[in-house]
Design brief:
- It is built from 3 helices and 12 strands; from the N terminus they run H-E-E-E-E-E-H-E-H-E-E-E-E-E-E.
- It is mainly beta.
- It has a single domain, classed as Roll (Pnp Oxidase, Chain A).
- The strands form 3 sheets. The chain has a 7-stranded antiparallel sheet. Strands 1-11-12 form a 3-stranded antiparallel sheet, with no helix packed on it. Strands 7-8 form a two-stranded antiparallel sheet.
- The radius of gyration is 17 Å and the shape is globular.
- 28% of the residues are buried.
- The N terminus is likely disordered.
- The structure holds flavin-adenine dinucleotide.
- Flavin-adenine dinucleotide binds next to strand 3, strand 5 and helix 2.
- Flavin-adenine dinucleotide (FAD) binds next to strand 3, strand 5 and helix 2.
């Protein structure tokens, strides 16, 4: 298709990982903490998350095979999602930090409640929460796509959103009314 717009299009083979990461940094996303409860209790910051279907309600999350969270979700068969508020940037950094402890210790000092349907830790002060039962998982390269049937969903108080854009955390203000 011809276009007068001056767009540089890479026509080579698959983009190098660093190039793809750089391009995707221009796609602003929200930030979530994915979590698993019970014997495999764990939390992980993730932005590769989106809704898939409204009826039946389902969402997806992409998790690196190298992440502890991959094994945790695979074994538990469920995951929780806390959609983070702008003031939770510190928690987002913590749950992406490979130096944090494993197991229940990573949640000490964190305000959370177990999800009523799955027991997955849900962050207090988040904008909204989901609880999901894994219905399907697809291995794609170095990540897996987990499809979650939504078994619980709720909203908290209105607040500013936490965004990840251009490699940095940002605030999404509430729209003016
Ligand atoms: C904004 C943002 C968005 C992100 N989005 C995503 C996303 O969508 N998907 C994604 O996959 N990642 C994403 N990440 C990266 C992810 O949050 C980090 O890589 C995170 O550290 C991985 O979490 P993990 O706990 O599962 O694994 P790890 O960080 O690898 O492990 C957690 C802890 O376990 C310890 N540990 C690991 N293995 C062992 C072992 N065998 N014995 C003892 N201790 C062990 C580690 O030292 C560490 O303390 C994102 C990061 C950011 C900042």
């Amino acid at each position: 298709m011809n276009s007068s717009t001056d767009v540089a299009v890479s026509r080579g083979p698959a983009a190098e990982p660093a190039a793809l990461r750089d391009v995707m940094s221009q796609f602003a996303t929200g930030v979530t903490m994915l979590s698993v409860g019970g014997d495999h209790i764990h939390g992980m910051t993730a932005n590769a998350f989106t809704s898939v279907s409204l009826d039946p309600p389902s969402v997806l999350a992409c998790v690196a095979h190298s992440a502890v969270m991959y094994e945790a979700i695979t074994k538990a068969g469920h995951f929780g999602v806390s959609i983070m508020e702008a003031n939770q940037e510190g928690l987002a950094r913590f749950f992406a930090d490979k130096k944090r402890p494993l197991g229940p210790g990573q949640f000490s000092g964190v305000d959370w409640v177990p999800g009523p349907r799955t027991g997955a830790p849900l962050l207090e002060g988040a904008l909204a929460w989901l609880e999901c039962e894994v219905s399907e998982a697809y291995e794609v390269g170095d990540h897996s796509i987990f499809i979650g049937d939504v078994v619980g969903a709720s909203r908290g108080d209105a607040g500013e959103g936490l965004l990840f854009f251009s490699g940095a955390f940002q605030r999404a203000p509430l729209p003016a009314r």
